[in-house]
Write a structure and sequence with these properties.
By secondary structure, the protein is of the alpha/beta class. The protein is about 30% helix and about 25% strand. The chain is built from ten helices and 14 strands. The strands form three sheets. It has a ten-stranded mixed beta sheet, with helices on both faces. A two-stranded antiparallel ribbon has the order 1-2. The two termini are about 40 Å apart.
Length: about 325
């Protein structure tokens, strides 16, 4: 395990950052997010999230409010520190009102890292560098040399490098199209994406070791695939919903589901029904999807899965060879 000590921490009289981080760890503990792999508790307790969000934006009436750690107002700096350790996503980059990058909700990050099932010595590729915080958690667990993070935007990768160095971590940070992976650093035991996609990039399969795992947001869920070889992978969704910024430069993410005329309001507003709509778009119209959803008892996300075989990729309910299977929308 690669241990690092943070270079600095803004300490108030009561050790505000340290106490806020400890409170965040307790909240994640209570959620059970890392119950399957409690070693992640140490990483979250050690890595200072505030160093990765020197400023961020919070929604207010009429737009966003910027909070930053260099504010001349000590009360504003305290709000910045406390906000950095809330169990909530933080908007970190905006352009013309559009969210370009964020720091994900820590408990969701813990869910994803635990589901990745890393082992000591694993090489991990992260697609979507963001602030660098997730790469730091991985580097704390595995060591700098085992972690590669990639992002298309050079401004994002440069700021991620700065944040990582400030916290004492030095994984490999690459500027490039994450959908193409990082072949010069392959093979990988694990690939984790922190941006939404609509298909599984074949380059990721080719750059994974047999038996490797890929965890990625797809639709409004998180799919965990086990890779058999360069052309085959299969797995199920996690139970949790997930909403991520789309991957830039790769396959597009799904937008809003189809028109829902004729579907009861209760279903239209149900997150699980809308998840089914994303998986069946182009194969079932909304009324057919609703009939299936009702017939199958409003299935949870973990009953769905994805299979990749050569050039074909399909979603399924319960069984990849069963009666309910649909080609993924491209």
């Amino acid at each position: 395990m690669g241990g690092h000590a943070p270079d600095r921490e803004p300490e108030g009289p009561d050790g505000l950052a340290a106490s806020a981080r400890a409170a965040l760890v307790r909240r994640i503990d209570a959620s059970g997010a890392w119950a399957a792999d409690p070693v992640w508790r140490e990483a979250f307790a050690a890595v200072p999230r505030h160093l990765f969000v020197p400023y961020y934006y919070v929604g207010v009436a009429g737009g966003y409010e910027r909070r930053w750690g260099e504010s001349p107002d000590p009360r504003a700096r305290e709000r910045w520190v406390r906000g950095a350790y809330e169990d909530t996503p933080l908007a970190t980059r905006l352009r013309d009102g559009e969210l370009l990058s964020s720091s994900s909700q820590p408990s969701l990050m813990a869910d994803m890292l635990a589901a990745l099932c890393v082992r000591d010595g694993n090489a991990v590729l992260e697609v979507g560098a963001g602030t660098g915080y997730n790469a730091a958690l991985l580097a704390h667990r595995l060591g700098d040399d085992k972690v590669t993070t990639v992002d298309l935007d050079p401004e994002i990768t440069e700021s991620a490098r700065r944040h990582l160095a400030a916290a004492g971590y030095h994984p490999v940070v690459v500027t490039g199209d994450g959908a193409r992976g990082v072949p010069e650093r392959a093979p990988f035991d694990r690939i984790i994406a922190t941006c939404a996609l609509s298909t599984v990039p074949r380059a990721w399969l080719a750059q994974s070791r047999p038996g490797g795992r890929i965890l990625m947001p797809l639709g409004t869920g998180l799919i965990v695939l086990t890779v058999s070889d360069a052309g085959h992978a299969e797995g199920r969704f996690l139970h949790t919903p997930a909403y991520f910024v789309p991957l830039r430069g790769g396959s597009r993410s799904w937008g809003e589901p189809a028109q829902l005329g004729g579907v009861p309001r209760r279903a239209r507003e149900d997150d699980l029904f809308r998840f089914l709509l994303t998986l069946t778009r182009g194969s079932l119209d909304p009324q057919e999807a609703h009939a299936l959803w009702e017939q199958e008892g409003m299935p949870q996300r973990e009953r769905y899965g994805i299979t990749v075989s050569g050039d074909h990729e399909w979603a399924w309910l319960d069984d990849p060879e069963g009666p309910y299977a649909w080609p993924l929308p491209s």
